[in-house]
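Can anyone check this?
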Amino acid sequence: QIPGLLVACPSTPADGKGLLKAAIRDDNPVIFIEHESLYGARGEVPDDEDHVLDFGKADVRREGDDVTIVGILRMVQAAEKAAQELESEHDASAEVIDPRTLRPLDLDTILESVRKTNRCVIVEEGWPHGGVGANLAALIQEQAFDHLDAPIQRVTGADVPMPYAKRMEQAAIPHPEHVVKAALATLEGSI
């Protein structure tokens, strides 16, 4: 561990601006993670110079009552699409959380949501072993076990080196339908 190290991973253009400005202004070392597939992402970006986001403050992108879905980096978009499908096709309400920063991690917001929904799905592109999602699942299980009505589900990239051929890449990364399936597994028997 590096004392004072901050890790930011924006999933929207506005978050990118706000977190990059925060990183530049911070005296601590900051790792700023950008996903190259988000370079073409479009979205509203505040014009004001004071658009600086706080490290360690997650964004609740969608309110919900039945299951918490935590999306890491560009998987926030997959989580949001899955939440829409869960609502329209399965009458299930998913809360979607974008942690925005991994260190410091806003675990309080995530735990508050899990304690409300009693279920959790974590979505990341990383490999299933030793990744951010595995660590987050361990933290949730350690601190909110008594609130969980179902095992935490993790949706990850395939356990293979990331392919660069477009079709193979699409086969290796999570998609909204994978998130829906995981969410429904946590809700089995309750909807």
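Reply from J.R.: I decoded it. The mean pLDDT is 93.
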